[in-house]
């Protein structure tokens, strides 16, 4: 029996990877394993959990994001030196296949499920091609259950995917280019069948938007939530969603009854002009002035809100960061994620920065490790690099310091009421705080105890 080694690399243990509570399973490898012929022995090696140790295999598959691509290339070269064939896939490889082919024997772009059997057959017949392109599969017709049994058992969250694709094209996101603009969704029954088989209690839906944007997708979400309630699954879970989900109060109520602990929402910025540049149409339609109303709607049903914001945009001032910090204290947002704007391969933002000659770190692929949402990697118009780092420190020092941190947690307790959900909110706040304290700029640019912002 031939052995397939599937590897999830980790380059730099920082940010969310510093906490078990914010680290998630490499579900793409579990899907790859699910479509591998039974005549193969399969093992998933996960650097999220275990230290990597070289082991023999007949074939190696490696997935990677931009943030960990350097480590992926390093591992690939280890196996190539041993004359073991290496196949690479994932979003970074799909965006930059020519680069990846310098380090791998074969690259698979797109979705692996529809092409993997051909890849394996070609390998077995010694006809492995340098490139394969996976088709976008019809999730409503294709029943593929990922091999959860091969994922490391120590993860807190069990990952489940119910949809792929995004009809929007936010300028900093490559999802629509990678997975298409069509919102493809699995049948609710198929998802429920998978959930019933998962032994763990805690679920993370890794969809970019679980609820979707159309009447059809909302009906599917409603069917899913009603199914979870009817089956009495007793799972606790979180999801990502656009803020327009708050328009459907009944759907939110069902999500709460089905076990939703919190929802991840990309608020992104308080600046309307910046939202326009980001192409965040839904946010503009709802309006920055209504952000708190969105939070209140989820709170009404005991669901917490993880609000994601992006800083490092053009023309952001220290005054803006002060205002954002004040908003985060008073908005009711329970958990805060702040990323530094990062142009990634395959995004309109990257194409714009390249065209305008604004990238600072261009020794690629060596410099890819800085493209991880914690470095300023492009020249900011109307702003400076240190202003962003100092502003980030100012904001986080304020929301995690006395008395603001305690006020935020008490506010969550008052609105959420559910003890399990409150505990999750507390743990995630601790995780976010730990990730900030592990950044390269935390100590050197830490503001004073008076939380001043230059």
Give the SSE map.
Elements: E1 2-8, H1 27-34, E2 40-46, E3 59-63, H2 69-81, E4 85-89, H3 91-95, H4 97-100, E5 106-110, H5 116-124, E6 131-134, E7 158-160, E8 163-164, H6 175-179, E9 184-185, H7 188-197, E10 202-205, H8 215-230, E11 236-240, H9 249-257, E12 260-268, H10 272-278, H11 281-286, H12 291-299, E13 304-311, H13 318-330, E14 335-340, H14 348-355, H15 385-399, H16 404-416, H17 419-437
Parallel strand pairs: 1-2, 1-3, 3-4, 4-5, 5-6, 7-10, 10-11, 11-12, 12-13, 13-14
Antiparallel strand pairs: 8-9
Helix pairs in contact: 7-8, 8-9, 13-15, 16-17
Distance between the termini: 63 Å
CATH topology of the largest domain: pyruvate-formate lyase- activating enzyme
User: Low-confidence stretches at least 5 residues in length (pLDDT < 50)?
Assistant: none
Radius of gyration: 22 Å
Strand content: 15-25%
**Secondary-structure-derived class:** alpha/beta
Please indicate the count of domains: 2
According to DSSP, the number of beta strands is: 14
CATH class category name of the largest domain: Alpha Beta
Q: Which CATH-level-2 architecture of the largest domain?
A: Alpha-Beta Horseshoe
The average pLDDT is 94
The major pleated sheet works out as:
6 strands, parallel
CATH homologous superfamily heading of the largest domain: tm_1862 like domain
Going across the major beta sheet, what is the strand order?
A: 2-1-3-4-5-6
Which percent bin holds the helix content? 25-40%
Give the overall form: globular
Count of runs of 4 or more consecutive helical residues? 17
């Amino acid at each position: 029996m031939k052995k397939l080694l599937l590897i999830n690399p980790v380059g730099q243990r920082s940010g969310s990877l510093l906490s078990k509570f914010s680290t998630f399973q490499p579900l793409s490898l579990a899907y790859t394993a699910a479509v591998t012929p039974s005549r193969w022995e399969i093992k998933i090696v996960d650097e999220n959990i275990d230290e990597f140790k070289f082991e023999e295999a007949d074939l190696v598959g490696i997935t990677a994001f931009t943030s960990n691509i350097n480590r992926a290339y390093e591992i690939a070269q280890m196996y190539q030196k041993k004359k073991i064939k290496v196949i690479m896939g994932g979003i970074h490889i799909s965006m930059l296949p020519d680069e990846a082919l310098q380090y791998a024997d074969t690259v698979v772009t797109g979705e692996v499920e529809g092409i993997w059997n051909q890849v394996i057959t070609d390998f077995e017949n010694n006809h492995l091609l340098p490139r394969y392109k996976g088709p976008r599969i019809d999730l409503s017709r294709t029943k593929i259950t990922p091999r959860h049994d091969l994922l490391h058992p120590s993860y807190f969250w069990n990952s489940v995917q119910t949809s792929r694709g995004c009809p929007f094209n936010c300028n900093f996101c490559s999802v629509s280019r990678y997975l298409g603009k069509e919102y493809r969704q699995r049948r609710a029954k198929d998802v429920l069948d998978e959930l019933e088989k998962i032994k763990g209690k805690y679920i993370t839906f890794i969809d970019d938007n679980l609820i979707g944007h159309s009447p059809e997708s909302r009906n599917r979400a409603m069917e899913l939530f009603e199914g979870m309630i009817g089956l009495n699954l007793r799972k606790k879970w979180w999801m990502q969603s656009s803020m327009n989900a708050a328009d459907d109060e009944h759907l939110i109520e069902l999500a709460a009854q089905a076990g939703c602990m919190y929802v991840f929402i990309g608020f992104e910025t308080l600046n309307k002009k910046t939202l326009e540049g980001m192409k965040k149409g839904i946010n503009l339609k709802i309006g920055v002035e209504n952000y708190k109303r969105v939070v209140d709607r989820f709170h009404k049903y005991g669901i917490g809100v993880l609000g994601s914001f992006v800083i490092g945009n053009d023309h952001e001032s220290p005054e803006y960061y002060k205002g954002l910090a004040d908003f985060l204290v008073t908005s009711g947002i329970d958990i805060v994620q702040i990323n530094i704007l990062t142009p990634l391969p395959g995004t309109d933002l990257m194409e714009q920065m390249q065209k305008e000659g604004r990238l600072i770190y261009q020794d690629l692929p060596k410099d890819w490790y800085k493209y991880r949402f914690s470095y300023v990697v492009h020249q900011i118009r109307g702003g400076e690099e240190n202003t962003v780092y100092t502003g980030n420190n100012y904001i986080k020092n304020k929301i995690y310091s006395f008395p603001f941190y305690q006020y935020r947690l008490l506010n969550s307790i008052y609105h959420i009421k559910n003890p399990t959900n409150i505990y999750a909110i507390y743990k995630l706040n601790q995780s976010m705080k730990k990730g900030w304290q592990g950044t390269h700029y935390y100590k050197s640019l830490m503001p004073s105890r008076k939380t001043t912002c230059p």
